[in-house]
Design brief:
This is Aconitate hydratase B. Belongs to the aconitase/IPM isomerase family. It catalyses: (2S,3R)-3-hydroxybutane-1,2,3-tricarboxylate = 2-methyl-cis-aconitate + H2O; citrate = D-threo-isocitrate. Its EC number is 4.2.1.3, 4.2.1.99. The protein is an alpha/beta fold and 609 residues long. Among the domains are: 2-161, Aconitase, domain 4; 236-354, Aconitase, domain 3, CATH 3.30.499.10; 531-603, Aconitase, domain 3, CATH 3.30.499.10. The protein contains 20 helices and 25 strands. The strands form 8 sheets. Strands 13-12-11-14-15 form a 5-stranded parallel sheet. Strands 1-2-5-6 form a 4-stranded parallel sheet. Helix 6 (165-171) packs across helix 7 and helix 17 crosses helix 19 (583-589). The chain is globular, with a radius of gyration of 24 Å.
């Protein structure tokens, strides 16, 4: 079953149907519900191409999902659940859930690849140009080739991402494999037996003798070693784990599957930012039941209306530590995070560690002087702009090149940024399909940030947020770092897959991204004269300064705006401050739509353009 071009996780698990995600068979009906080239939904905008999928299944062979670019965008485990509901295998004695299946992509986004691994599927990256809907193929996993059925004609070749992938398929998923392998090892150690030969062990990566990058050192620290080489399997300690409310109910189900009664991760936080605006009855039920479930296990629960998960979670971070979150924009501005689907987030929260095949790194080095009129957002967009210029990125989906995909972006050259500004750069690495991001910052902005964050956490305790012990423990962790502020640094001889240098003195005009593709970076002069109907100021990419700047411009405008302007600040604290400073009055006067702090406009479950 081939879907030409790019399928992102919103195609596979539409945002407007987020309410039904925990009900996998029901939610799977919405997969690919919007008509597109090569795909004819049963009911456009409501039910996906179920008839076409069932017709292919009637041929009597297992069905593989094929696409040029698969699984980009949000970190939705529900996208994997939907694909596997149509193309996976029943799990004995477990209703309404399937595992296994085969997914073949020219490029498979790293988080989607990982959620496929967790579910026991076989994800394969290879050239898909000779594969078409209805073809019958033979896959040779050990030989790394795909042939036309019943012939020796090779239509594509591949290399499995890891040696352990086939064990994961046999075990019904990466998480059952890790737990089963661990139990086996402990039992054999107790009996005085050697290592089991049943499992394929992750291969050790040869030490190059070179230095480590910042990311490799951070992950190394979380594993109790100096550094971790690319390709090395490891299980770093999870210091901070985030969960949001459209994945939260699935994470709750996964935590029950793991029989988790208390979190092992030092801090696990649950937000309610994706469903706070105009909630459905099922969302209201989640708002009432999920906080206690999280707090009873030692987690921290926010409240509907508090705002965006990242704006809060970032203020709970410890420098140079590792974490994860059930949202693709979980990109720590201090430390490093590897965002994941709800299953892996549940595993990380429950066990306090996370399985990781250490990715390679791409170094992005800024140099030169920032020019007048250029903002930080232009530097964010300079990464894809210069990536295209240097052949690291293409906009076309067929045969797409994306050298950032699945790698860690390591950013240098802007050490004086405020931590909120650093997050703007880190956050946008999600749009590059990067596995993670590090930013080299000086101690001063981090010290200032942590001092402010301690005040916020103490305020949260005073306001009755829980779990109180978890918040107190995190305050102590911050105070301990402030007493002896040390930061890891990349070695001068560290090795990178690519080095991208961006000279800020060359950037003389703003850089924008054309809808609907964040890779499609254009100079302002290239799009001058374009008609604009909708404007949105909000999301985790914004801070209070953006709203003040917009307010100052709008204050000089008399009358009603000719466009539709949506405004949604990231947190309730920003909302209160902007109200106190009179900016809400300005937004209201010009006819802006002011929305509750949160993520629903970005995600698309509130309104669509």
């Amino acid at each position: 079953f081939k879907v030409p071009g790019e399928t992102n996780t919103d195609d596979l698990s539409p945002a407007q149907d987020a309410w039904s995600r925990p009900d996998i068979p029901l939610h799977a009906q919405a997969m690919l519900k919007n008509a597109r080239p090569g795909i004819e939904p049963d009911e456009d905008g409501v039910i996906g191409p179920i008839t076409a999928i069932n017709a292919l299944k009637e041929k009597g062979f297992p069905l593989a999902y094929v696409g040029d670019v698969v699984g980009t965008g949000s970190s939705r485990k529900s996208a994997t659940n939907s694909v596997l509901w149509h193309m996976g295998d029943d799990i004995p004695f477990v209703p309404n859930k399937r595992a296994g299946g085969v997914c073949i992509g020219g490029k498979i986004a790293p988080i989607f690849f990982n959620t496929m691994e967790d579910a026991g599927a076989l994800p394969i990256e290879c050239d898909v140009t000779k594969l078409n809907t209805g073809d019958v193929i033979d896959i040779y996993p050990y030989e790394g080739k795909i042939c036309r059925h019943g012939s020796d004609e090779v239509v594509s070749t591949f290399k499995l991402k890891t040696e352990v992938l086939l064990d994961e398929v046999r075990a019904g998923g990466r998480i059952p494999l890790i737990i089963g392998r661990g139990l086996t090892d402990k039992a054999r150690a107790e009996l005085g037996l050697g290592h089991s030969e049943v499992f394929k062990r992750p291969a050790d990566v040869a030490d190059t003798g070179k230095g480590y990058t910042l990311a490799q050192k951070m992950v190394g620290k979380a594993c109790g070693v100096a550094g971790v080489r690319p390709g090395q399997y490891c299980e770093p300690k999870m210091t901070t784990v985030g969960s949001q409310d459209t994945t939260g109910p699935m994470t709750r189900d996964e935590l029950k599957d793991l029989a988790c009664l208390g979190f092992s991760a030092d801090l696990t936080m649950q937000s309610f930012c994706h469903t706070a605006a105009y909630p459905k009855p099922v969302d209201v039920t989640t708002h009432h039941t999920l906080p206690d479930f999280i707090m009873n296990r030692g987690g921290v629960s926010l409240r509907p209306g508090d705002g965006v998960i990242h704006s809060w979670l970032n203020r709970m971070l410890l420098p140079d530590t590792v974490g994860t979150g059930g949202d693709s924009h979980t990109r720590f501005p201090i430390g490093i995070s590897f965002p994941a689907g709800s299953g892996l987030v549940a595993f990380a929260a429950a066990t306090g560690v996370m399985p990781l095949d250490m990715p390679e790194s791409v170094l992005v080095r800024f140099k030169g002087e920032m020019q007048p009129g250029i903002t930080l957002r232009d530097l964010v967009h300079a990464i894809p702009y210069y990536g295209i210029k240097h052949g690291l990125l293409t906009v076309a989906k067929e045969g797409k090149i994306n050298e950032f995909s699945g790698r860690v972006l390591e950013i240098e050259g802007l050490p004086q940024l405020k931590v909120e500004q650093a997050f703007e750069l880190a956050d946008a690495t999600a749009e590059r399909s990067a596995a993670g991001c590090t930013i080299k910052l000086d101690k001063e902005p981090i010290i200032e940030y942590l001092n402010s964050n301690i005040v916020m956490l103490k305020w949260m305790i005073a306001e009755g947020y829980g779990d109180q012990r978890t918040l107190e423990r995190r305050i102590k962790g911050m105070e301990a770092w402030l007493a002896n502020p040390e930061l890891l640094e990349a070695d001068a001889d560290a090795e990178y897959a690519h080095v991208l240098e961006i000279d800020m003195s060359e950037i003389k005009e703003p850089i924008l991204c054309a809808p609907n593709d964040p890779d499609d970076a254009r100079l302002l002069s290239e799009v001058t004269g374009e008609q604009i109907e909708e404007v949105f100021i909000g999301s985790c990419m914004t801070n209070i300064g953006h709203f003040r700047a917009a307010g100052k411009l709008l204050d000089r405008f008399k009358g009603q705006l000719p466009t539709r302007l949506w405004v949604a600040p990231p947190t309730k604290m920003d909302k209160d401050q902007l109200t106190a400073e009179g900016y809400y009055g300005i937004f209201g006067r010009v006819g802006a739509r002011i929305e509750i702090p949160g993520c629903s406009l970005c995600m698309g479950n509130q309104a669509r353009v």
